[in-house]
């Protein structure tokens, strides 16, 4: 499948048949990728940078972009010379790749996480829980063991069925879609992302998220301390305090802890899972689907690409960067068309390890 190229400097070697586009929205990112073993070795180093500098720091983004480019490299990296031509792969990272090619592992990656935690005084699981102390963390730690478990696809689908049952009691006629890692084809997910809209009926979604969350609380599907965040686009429909919504954050969102009732077979006891409920208007459906499908690097690169062509993109829609006027893109494929990109299927957007 041909992938659109950016007329600006998007690759390190534009005349090289093996050149790799820098932006994830210009290439395929399968999981597993052809260099998966190398990516797994680099993943702890990427996470180490996130811990040390923060996820939005230049040092973190640069390294994450390099790893993402390796994921999108369509050939097996067998030489240092090949590695050096990949975008964002600098001299230091090239040396790490050389170590992997020679020994099959990267020594530093084996100790990166342990060293960072040790520096923060972490020696035991209890130390780790205390080190994670931040806003709303008490609720999170209460269900820590369950929330650390990966969620199989069958359970993701079961959770959706519970949510749809409650939606039917509130306002039928909705459309839902499982997004995130599930939609990208991952066998196991860290959390569950559920997108909700009312096809061709803008305005019908108003008030649905609050009603859904309140009903799920009444049904004990959300524990008393299970609402981590709820935003409702700056309207009066907020039931827990949170930051104000902005033009670039225009979707109703509830980040909750969901109690998945025991069924006596696959779940011999109740399980607690992280679930994101996202309600969007129909006219924003395409952007919401793209935005909530991910992956993180893919979304970051979509925004970078949009900026290059004087547009703004996020899960709340596409806008002209000069006039701030919305640009219509109702479907997912409309989003790619408006952004001048070839359509990339969800399973090829796994641009993060």
TrEMBL record:
Keywords annotated in UniProt: DNA damage, DNA repair, DNA-directed DNA polymerase, Nucleotidyltransferase, Nucleus, Transferase
GO cellular component assignments: nucleus
The DNA-directed DNA polymerase X domain, residue ranges: 33-350
Keyword Nucleotidyltransferase among UniProt keywords: yes
EC id: 2.7.7.7
Active-site annotation: 96 (nucleophile)
Family note: Belongs to the DNA polymerase type-X family.
PANTHER family named in the record: DNA POLYMERASE TYPE-X FAMILY MEMBER, DNA POLYMERASE TYPE-X FAMILY PROTEIN POL4
Protein name: DNA polymerase
Organism (species): Rhodotorula toruloides (strain NP11) (Yeast)
């Amino acid at each position: 499948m041909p992938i659109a190229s950016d007329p600006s400097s998007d690759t390190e070697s534009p005349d090289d048949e093996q050149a790799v586009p820098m932006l994830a929205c210009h290439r395929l990112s399968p999981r597993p990728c052809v260099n998966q073993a190398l990516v797994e070795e680099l993943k702890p180093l990427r996470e180490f940078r996130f811990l040390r500098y923060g996820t939005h720091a230049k040092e973190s983004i640069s390294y994450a972009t390099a790893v993402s480019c390796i994921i999108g490299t369509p050939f097996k990296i067998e030489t240092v010379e090949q590695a050096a031509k990949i975008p964002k792969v600098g001299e230091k990272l090239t040396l790490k790749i050389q170590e992997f090619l020679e020994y099959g592992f990267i020594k530093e990656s084996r100790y990166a996480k342990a060293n960072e935690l040790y520096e923060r005084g972490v020696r035991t699981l209890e130390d780790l829980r205390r080190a994670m102390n931040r806003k709303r963390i008490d609720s999170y730690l209460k269900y820590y063991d369950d929330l650390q478990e990966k969620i199989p696809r069958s359970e993701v689908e079961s959770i959706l069925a519970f949510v749809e049952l409650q939606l039917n009691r509130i306002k039928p006629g909705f459309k839902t879609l499982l997004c995130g890692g599930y939609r990208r084809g991952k066998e196991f997910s860290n959390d569950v992302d559920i997108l909700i809209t009312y096809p061709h009926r803008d305005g019908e979604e108003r008030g649905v998220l609050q009603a859904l969350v309140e009903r799920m609380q009444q049904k004990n599907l959300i524990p008393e301390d299970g609402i981590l965040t709820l935003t409702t686009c700056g309207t009066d429909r907020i039931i827990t305090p949170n930051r104000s919504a902005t033009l670039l954050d225009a979707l109703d969102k509830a980040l909750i802890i969901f109690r998945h009732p025991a069924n006596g077979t696959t779940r011999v006891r109740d399980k607690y899972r992280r679930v994101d409920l996202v309600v969007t208007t129909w006219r924003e459906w395409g952007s919401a689907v793209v935005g909530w499908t991910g992956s993180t690097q893919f979304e970051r690169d979509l925004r970078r690409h949009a900026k290059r062509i004087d547009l703004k993109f996020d899960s709340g829609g596409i806008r002209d960067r000069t006039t701030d006027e919305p640009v219509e893109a109702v479907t997912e494929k409309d989003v790619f068309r408006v952004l001048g990109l070839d359509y990339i299927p969800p399973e090829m957007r796994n641009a993060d390890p």
